[in-house]
Amino acid sequence: MSQLVIKDLWVSADSNMILKGVNLTISSEDTVALMGPNGSGKSTLAYTIMGHPDYKVEKGSILFDGEDILNMSVDERSRKGLFLAMQSPYEISGVTNRDFIKQASDKRIKENGKPLSIYKFAVKLDKAISDLKMDKDLADRYVNEGFSGGEKKKNEILQLKMLEPKFAILDEIDSGLDVDAVKIVSDNVNNLKKENNIGLILISHYHRLYEYIKPTHAVVLINGQLVKEGGSELIDEIDKYGFEPIKREAGIEDEVTLLEECAFKVTSK
Ligand code: ADP
Ligand code: MG
Pick from 244, 83, 94: which is nearest to 162 by CA? Predict the structure, then answer.
């Protein structure tokens, strides 16, 4: 069993403090729904776990299987078994998807101490592409170049399937996917969970994804702080009532709410 432990994490970008004391422990048995309004710091948390250079850890620690990962490079973290399916995947011109995934796979997936043979790799890639109902040509095109929004998202899951991490963060994997594609991606993620027992952090604004990939826990991030934790009932609650009641409960009032309240008091006088 793998474990990711985040302790009192403070993170800034461009001299703005974005995460303000996040504490979270997740094991590979868990599927955590990371929820929160736009701009609350969800992607920042995902990027910080992976080691994106734009995000500066001001305080706190992240331990993966007991090891402090904050001084590790992105590549080292990935080889340790961490994976991020990005909200907005990058395009890499001049590198084919096949070569890109083969390079990454060779460092991570070993059979008797050796990378997969070209044949075995090709068979595995073909199967993963067909499981995801992706166009076969996408393997030999440049990474994400000219891919549709949905193809880019599926391509992230293709990498997830090929690299077999211990822990994966899926950042808005369902945005830009049509209804059928959300189902296909979810089925693939559920199979991975069943086969490899990978720990999952799901970031999504849509209830539909959480119906297909059932979270064991839900946490709510607002203004860089985790303000509420719960089970799947919390997801239903947010779907019905939005984040406002949670903000109020946590004593967080944003400017819009304050203005609305002032307007209400003025007009109701
Ligand atoms: P979420 O994913 O929850 O919508 P983000 O983590 O993307 O939120 O962003 C949280 C806040 O941090 C936002 O106000 C955003 O503008 C800011 N932010 C994110 N990345 C950067 C960056 N690289 N430089 C400066 N500010 C950033
Ligand atoms: Mg985001």
Answer: 83
40, 68 Cβ separation under 8 angstroms: no
Local structure of residue 116 (DSSP, 8 states): P
37 lines ligand 1 (CB under 6 A): no
What DSSP state is assigned to residue 268?
T
pLDDT tens digits, residue range 152-173? Answer: 999 999 999 999 999 999 999 9
Mean pLDDT on 98-113: 94
pTM: 0.92
Q: Which of 11, 15, 16, 88 to mutate to test the pocket of ligand 1 (most atoms within 8 A of CB)?
A: 16
The tens digit of pLDDT for each residue in 45-66 reads: 999 999 999 999 999 999 999 9
Instruction: Tell me the C-alpha distance between 22 and 7, whole Å.
Output: 6
- Three-class HEC string of 34-70: EECCCCCCHHHHHHHHHCCCCCEEEEEEEEECCEECC
DSSP symbols for 185-252: HHHHHHHHHHHH--EEEEE-S-HHHHHHS--SEEEEEETTEEEEEESHHHHHHHHHH-SHHHHHHTT-
Report the pLDDT value the prediction gives residue 95, as an integer from 0 to 100: 96
Query: Residue 252 is which amino acid?
Result: I
Q: If 0-12 CB within 10 Å is exposed, 13-18 middle and 19+ buried, where does residue 24 land?
A: buried
How far apart, in whole angstroms, are the C-alpha atoms of residue 32 and residue 168?
11
- Residues 37 and 161: their CA atoms lie apart, in Å, by 29
Taking alpha carbons only, the member of 192, 177, 184 closest to residue 147 is 177
Task: Name the residue with the closest Cα to ligand 1, atom 15.
Answer: 39
Alpha-carbon gap, residue 165 to 258, rounded angstroms: 44
